[in-house]
Amino acid sequence: MCNMNNFNDDIDFKMLEKEIGNAVAHDDRYQRENDAKFRAINQKVRSYDEFRDIVAASHIKPLGRHDKLGGMNYQKWNPVSNNSASDTGAKAKNNPSTTNLQLPKNSQDFFKTWKRTCTTYSDKWNYLLRIERMLLQNCLNLECPVGEILNVIYKCSAITTHMEKVIDILDIMTKSKRFSLELDFLSGEERKQLEEVFASVQSNLENTSEESLKNLQQAYRLR
């Protein structure tokens, strides 16, 4: 019979807690930097250095008017608090299921739901699944978070269960007006996810022609 005390002794709870904390911090950082990229693009930065500075500063935010520094009340900046992860969890509990969300009428509707209501990778993927091709293409025509969508596809292992939808989304993103710019600013991790997504597509290829896949690979600069 298994001795539960011995079983517990084999688990390093401090190490487990540290690994979970690191994973949460990594996801928070990814979301922060991705949002900063879109702010930089919308501000029409003039150089890559300016773009990089905006992304690098994504971890700071303004303090509230009641925060004090040296006994003075004024607007200043402070590192992101450790409460961000718990805040996200609280929002997720209060959010309705993505199956109850209304379909977007335009890009503004799409990103409002994408950023505020879809708080998990699963939420985002289920939301994408509900939107038919032409509507999704219209929503992503101007602004398209290529890296973030790739991350959602990768994290949800969507290829094995929804191959056609994944290929549709990959194709739709190439038609975005800022697609080339989005590719330029993919991080090393996002580039690796892109390669793994296409490798999975190729290994599960059924109804999609090899020629169509080659065209997509060229569009994503993989050939």
Write the layout of secondary structure elements.
Layout: H1 4-9, H2 13-42, H3 48-56, E1 60-62, E2 68-69, E3 72-73, E4 77-79, H4 84-94, H5 107-116, H6 121-130, H7 133-139, H8 146-155, H9 163-174, H10 179-184, H11 188-203, H12 210-219
Antiparallel strand pairs: 1-4, 2-3
Structure, explained:
Helix content is 61%, strand content 4%. It contains twelve helices and four strands. The protein has helices at 4-9, 13-42, 48-56, 84-94, 107-116, 121-130, 133-139, 146-155, 163-174, 179-184, 188-203, 210-219, and strands at 60-62, 68-69, 72-73, 77-79. Strands 1-4 form a two-stranded antiparallel ribbon. The protein has a two-stranded antiparallel sheet with strand order 2-3. Mean pLDDT is 76; it is low at 71-96.
